[in-house]
Amino acid sequence: MKVKVCGINNNKQLENLTESSVDMIGLNFYSKSKRYVISDALSEVSIADKELVGVFVNETIDKIKYLNAIYDFSYIQCHGHENHIKCSEIQRIQKIIKVFSISEAKDLEATKEFEFSDLFLFDTQTKEYGGSGIKFNWSLLNEYKGEVPFLLAGGITPDDVKAIKKIDHPQFYGVDINSKFEIRPGYKNIKAVELFTKAIKSTV
């Protein structure tokens, strides 16, 4: 089970997470987000064996190329309304995570055009682009019949370990945690993140 922490926007938190048990760390480059990465100083932090994810919303190819050259992302997360043509172009730059907003079973049908993706991320459908702290009905995951592995996001809390471990889907790759682990936007409770991550990865 992989654990991705999203919405990190300062050096100290990034440094702390590189010493934690998480697998993936997301940096948000959407300027309207409360968790927007303002400075390129984060690129100076050594992330050891963690996978760094650049999160973008309807961004230009040139801007993504520019930031990928600075950060050397493991994945580029397409969190907006990017169509399959643009996502395919972005995939030439780096592996991609395509995000889908879910509120009902039919929303999963949109994944069919993006089966070339490296990962999917299923988040709650809201007016904002993620970080809402709201869950969708996880039983809808049973309606996903594709072969691309997926991350689950949307209102995951430190108390959801047992419920997450009950999810039985062949393509369930891991979870994406964010707002419910925050002290304030962009600042995670690192201890809570670590306790959750160890509990999720535990086989007990």
Explain what the structure shows:
The chain has 204 residues and is an alpha/beta fold. It is built from five helices and ten strands; from the N terminus they run βαββαβαβββαβββα. The protein has an eight-stranded parallel β-barrel. β9 and β10 form a beta hairpin. The protein starts with a strand and ends with a helix. The mean pLDDT is 94.
What is the topology?
Layout: E1 2-6, H1 11-18, E2 24-28, E3 51-56, H2 61-71, E4 75-78, H3 84-91, E5 96-102, E6 119-124, E7 150-152, H4 161-165, E8 172-177, E9 182-184, E10 187-188, H5 190-201
Cα separation of the termini: 13 Å
Average per-residue pLDDT, rounded, comes to 94
SSE class: alpha/beta
Number of strands: 10
What form results from the Cα inertia axes?
A: globular
Total of DSSP H or I helical runs spanning 4+ residues: 5
**Helical content band:** 10-25%
Rg, nearest Å = 16 Å
Which residues form runs of ≥5 with pLDDT under 50? none
Largest sheet: 8 strands, parallel, barrel
Adjacency order of strands in the biggest sheet: 1-2-3-4-5-6-7-8
Sequence of secondary-structure elements: EHEEHEHEEEHEEEH
Percent strand: 15-25%
